[in-house]
């Protein structure tokens, strides 16, 4: 039985492994589809080689690799600054809690106390407007704010304070409208900014049929917990983007249900 002593795990050992696995999963989720994934894999391989050299008591090589990994900490922060920022946003938001969790409830109660007439986002009007714009191949980019504040990007556009309705949304993105360029920001049930310039995510691989509008949608959803809807002016396709990923849906009604669930 002495040969199997290495299998003697304590509860803390199992917890340690589980936490590392969860951490690696979220790191992979953050950098999946980006150029950073190759760098991450390279670092992981170097780390495993270093642990192997330590176990085999290869002192010279293990010392070199150990100093390389230790001294590269600052370089890693620079390389992965966008991914680290998004990870911290995830930790600070409700992404690690249930959709019916305490923070969501607290946010809703706070909004209701600030405004007795608080109304939830009119998702039906938003999607109906997107469907109409899709039929005419009118390009559009709609960002729905959730927990993370979007004031920094809103400052790049024109302020607005108008309640959502289908006619207003379609008129804003009409090709001859002075407000059609850029993104539109929605908070609760109000349009709060138009012609917003969003950060364009360049270091991602997406199909060629998607352009700057979709890259901008990916960029803002990678940097915040906002939801994005992009209508392609080439194909008329409506894309739903969340957490830096394209979310698949079956039909318009299922898309409405998805967004309503994400906003709960």
Shape: elongated
Q: How are helices and strands ordered from N to C?
A: HHHHHHHEHEHEEHEEEH
Residue windows where pLDDT falls under 50 for at least 5 positions: 94-109, 112-118
**What is the mean predicted local confidence, pLDDT?**
79
| Biggest sheet architecture | 7 strands, mixed
Total helical segments: 11
Give short descriptive properties of this protein.
7-stranded mixed sheet; 11 helices; alpha+beta; elongated; 264 residues; single chain
Description:
The protein has 264 residues and is of the alpha+beta class. The protein has eleven helices and seven strands. The chain has helices spanning 11-31, 36-55, 59-71, 73-79, 81-92, 102-114, 123-135, 151-154, 166-172, 212-223, 252-263, and strands spanning 140-144, 158-163, 183-187, 190-196, 227-231, 238-242, 245-247. Strands 2-4-3-1-5-6-7 form a seven-stranded mixed β-sheet, sandwiched between helices. Helix 2 runs antiparallel to helix 3 (59-71), helix 7 crosses helix 9 and helix 7 (123-135) runs antiparallel to helix 11. The model is unreliable at 94-109 and 112-118 (pLDDT under 50).
């Amino acid at each position: 039985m002495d040969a199997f002593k290495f299998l003697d795990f304590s509860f803390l050992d199992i917890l340690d492994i589980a936490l590392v696995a969860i951490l690696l999963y979220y790191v992979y989720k953050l950098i999946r589809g980006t150029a950073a994934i190759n760098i991450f894999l390279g670092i992981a391989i170097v780390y495993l080689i270093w642990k192997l050299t330590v176990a085999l008591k290869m002192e010279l090589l293990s010392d070199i690799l150990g100093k390389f990994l230790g001294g590269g900490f600052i370089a890693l922060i620079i390389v992965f600054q966008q991914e680290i920022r998004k990870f911290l946003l995830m930790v600070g938001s409700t992404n690690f809690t249930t959709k019916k969790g305490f923070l969501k409830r607290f946010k809703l109660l706070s909004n209701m106390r600030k405004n007795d007439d608080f109304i939830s986002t009119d998702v039906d009007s938003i999607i109906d407007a997107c469907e109409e714009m899709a039929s005419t191949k009118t390009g559009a980019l709609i960002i729905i704010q959730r927990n993370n504040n979007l004031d920094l990007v809103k400052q790049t556009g024109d302020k607005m304070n108008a309640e959502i309705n289908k006619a207003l949304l379609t008129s804003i993105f009409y090709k001859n409208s002075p407000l059609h360029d850029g993104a539109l920001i929605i908070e609760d049930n109000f349009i709060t900014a138009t012609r917003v310039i969003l950060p364009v995510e360049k270091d991602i691989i997406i199909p060629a049929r998607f352009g700057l509008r979709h890259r901008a949608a990916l960029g803002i959803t990678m940097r915040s917990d906002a939801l994005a809807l992009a209508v392609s002016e080439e194909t008329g396709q409506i894309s739903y983007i969340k957490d830096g990923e394209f979310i698949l849906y079956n039909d318009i009604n299922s898309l409405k249900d998805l967004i309503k669930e994400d906003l709960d």
